Amino acid sequence: MRLWLMKSEPDVFSITDLERLGQSIWEGVRNYQARNWMREMRLGDLVLFYHSNATPPGVVGVGKIVREAYPDPFQHDPKSDYYDPKSPVNEPRWSAVDLGFVERFPREVPLEAMKADPGLLGMKVLEKGSRLSVTPVDHAHFVWVLGLGGSALTLPT
After folding, report:
1. What is the pLDDT of residues 62-92, one digit of tens each?
2. What is the 8-class DSSP label of residue 86?
3. Which residues neighbour 70 within 8 Å (Cβ) at sequence distance 6 or greater?
């Protein structure tokens, strides 16, 4: 099992939305590196759900991959904000995954607290200039964030 962090703006799609729906498509990723990481995701991989452009930004819960990467259907929809007229229909450029709800943290883990925590040194999302919406997470960092959020989840070693 691999571990990931995925960012979403809560006014677009929040952990509350995912909890209410149970699962949802994760579409609209338009960065090649983030897309490539999504294509590496496998069923059952766990995801730290991160609210970006929030006050404060931070990790708010956990999801899991319930459908592996497939062509993002919105890339070919001219009415969508995620439309990409340069993406060939026969060889789609962008991918989506489906994310299922696992849990909402009892307490949010704010970005500033993560940056100040020596236990998270080297975590990709905390690297200077990191703006990617999808990043891999080391096992130790994932477990550390679970603890900071008050999660009851335990991960196999």
Report:
1. 999 999 999 999 999 999 889 898 998 899 9
2. T
3. 95, 96, 97
Cα pseudo-dihedral 135, 141, 145, 150, rounded to 10: 140
Domain positions in the chain: 3-149
Tell me the β-bridge partners of 46.
3, 64
Cα separation, 29 vs 67, whole angstroms: 16
Residues 6+ apart with CB under 8 A from 109: 58, 59, 60, 145, 148, 149
- Which pLDDT tens digit goes with each residue over 2-18? 999 999 999 999 999 99
CATH architecture assigned to 3-149: Roll (3.10)
